[in-house]
Amino acid sequence: MMEKKIGFVIHNLVLFDTLKPLITELENQNIHYDILVSSIETEGWKEMAEDTYDHLLALGYNVKNLDSNPEKKYKIAFYPYLPYYLDLKTDYKIRYQYGMAKPTWNFSTKSTNFDWIFCNGIYDYSFLRAYTKCEISGFLKFANFKKKKRPNSEKPNILYLPTYGSACSIEQLQDVLKDLQRKYNLTIKLHHGTTFLEPHNKAIAEELTEKVFDHKYPLADLIQEADVILSDGSSAIFDAIVTDTPVVIFQPESAEPFEGFLPLEQQIIVDDIIPSTSNKDELEHAIYSALYEDKYADKRRSFKESNFPISAHETLNIVMNRIHKFLNDEIDTHFMASQRKVNSVIIEHESKIELLGKEVTIRDQWLQQQTEEVKRQIEEIKKRDEWLQQQAEEIKKRDEWLQQQAEEIKKRDQWLQQQTEEIQERKRQLQQQKQEIHQKDQIIQEQIEKINQKDYFLDEYNKELINRNQTIEQYSFYIDQIHNTISWKLSSKISKLKLFNFIKKKKGS
Fold it and tell me: FRET label pair with 168: which of 156, 188, 356, 468, CA 20 to 30 Å apart?
């Protein structure tokens, strides 16, 4: 049967771990297969796909890394969902379930693209059977699962499975997880998205414990050694229940209902089948309850029996039996024809809906652009109004300043007027003083003239006096000469009398 080829399309090792028991069985039965890893160009996811390819190649699997659809045709193609990154040429498309959470995505009408779906249990089977042929096969990834017993002397093992994105609780719980290690061994398996896209959360995990595993380490192997599972993701609920492992959910998400039905992962929490809490201070108590309270063990096992009727050892037999039928074309051809007709109609309608959706998207984008433009203009108007308001405030302040300046100018004018009046008064007083001074100057000038006249008379008098003195001297000389004469001596008395009278006469004139 070497010519009957099967293609498995994946892009991470979580998908491979789901398929690993089946791939091992195909190798045992000498059925050829290819593992086709889709190369995704998105940053982070591309590195994830490359890491997946390198890891499987190193382990010796038939693996190919593709960035486009292969030319080879396969008899059967296994997909986790459709549409996928790769579209294989194949006779039959089979869907394998790697999770059961989020029904609005998991149970979409895209399932009509498949010829067959392997379901985990009654819940997913009851919805998916409306789209195509389905079969309950159990959890494929746990087909070879066997629980390991822990020695009683050892601490219980907590397997922490933080989800990816905004719901991840690792940062919020890091202090609690440190404290829990007093009583428990802690192992962390990171979501494959966290490994490649959330380095901050990865670093926190590596600080908490040395036992941190990425998507290379199979989840089933870790659950084998776990005494209790702690998670913030809904898919961990089903992994725990089907492996009969106690589980606690921290801050359970509120998933969107599917056609009015509450998602099963949320219904399980509402019905208190497993303990959950949104308070990190209650987490240790919730873990203790999950481990040691019989009511949760009984509820968990009862739920498993009711919803997952296929045991692990039956899973591979069911899946391999169906694969052989497809490889040998042992199928209901009438149903297949009708199913593909229905699918083609659905695809046609979905294409029209998708086209309308694109048109609506384009219109929405245009409306968004217009809205953004209107918002931008409103912001500009708002900014302009704010600017005008500021200008008005500045003008108001300027007017107030100008008013103050006007008041100051008015006060200054009044002061200047007062100064002017005072100056005029001073000027008048000075003018009056000037007139008085002028009058005094005239009086002084007259006095000066009088003094000058007196000086003139005095000079004249002095001159006359000098002349008289000279005359007197002449007379004195003359008298002396006379005195020396004999006749004077003889007539001195007469002469003295005459002289005396003469001088007296002169003085009187």
Answer: 156
Q: Residue 84 — φ and ψ, nearest 5°?
A: -120, 175
State residue 206's pLDDT score: 93
Paired tokens of 498: 């005459």
CA 55 – CA 216 distance, rounded (Å): 8
Query: CB of 255 within 8 A of CB of 159?
Result: no
Pinpoint the alpha helices (H) of 111-263: 122-128, 170-180, 192-197, 199-208, 219-224, 235-242
Contacts of 106 (CB under 8 A, 6+ apart): 99, 100, 124
Distance CA 5, CA 77 (A): 9
Q: How would you class 280 by CB atoms within 10 Å of its CB: exposed for 0-12, middle for 13-18, buried for 19 or more?
A: middle
Half-sphere exposure of 460 (CA within 13 A, CB side): 6
CB 10 within 8 A of CB 39: no
| Half-sphere CA count of 496, side-chain side, radius 13 A | 6
Q: Smallest Cα–Cα separation from 172: which of 243, 244, 230?
A: 230
Instruction: Spell out the residues 6+ positions from residue 442 whose beta carbon is closer than 8 angstroms to its own.
Output: none
Length of the chain equals: 509
- Report the pLDDT value the prediction gives residue 143, as an integer from 0 to 100: 93
Reported in sequence order, the residue ranges of 206-344 that DSSP labels E, i.e. its strands, are 212-213, 228-231, 247-250, 276-277
Q: Cα angle at 331 between 329 and 332, to 5 degrees?
A: 145
Torsions phi, psi for 187 (to 5 deg): -125, 135
Nearest by Cα to 353 from 361, 364, 365, 363: 361
Q: Sheet holding 157-161: strands in order across?
A: 212-213, 185-189, 157-161, 228-231, 247-250, 276-277
Give CA–CA dist 241/223, Å, rounded.
11
Per-residue pLDDT tens digits for 441-466: 888 888 888 877 877 777 777 788 78
pLDDT at 3 over 70: no
Query: Residue 357 pLDDT more than 90?
Result: no
Q: Do the beta carbons of residue 79 and residue 19 sit within 8 Å? A: no
What percentage of the chain exceeds 70 in pLDDT?
A: 94
Rg (CA), the chain: 63
181-220 burial by CB neighbour count: b if 16+ within 10 A, else e? eeebbbbbbbbbbbbbbbeebbebbeebbebbbbbebbbb
How is residue 101 annotated by DSSP?
A: -
CA nearest 96: which of 107, 81, 111?
81
Question: What is the tens place of the pLDDT at every residue in 51-70?
Answer: 999 999 999 999 999 989 99
Q: What is the pTM of this model?
A: 0.70
In 3-state terms, what secondary structure has residue 353?
helix
Q: Which pLDDT does position 156 carry in this prediction?
A: 94
CA atoms within 13 A on the CB side of 131: 23
Of residues 43 and 70, more confidence is placed in 70
Per-residue DSSP letter, 89: E
Query: In what helix (H) or strand (E) does residue 388 lie, and over which residues does it extend?
Result: helix 333-483
Query: Which pLDDT belongs to residue 2?
Result: 42
Q: What does DSSP assign to residue 4? A: S
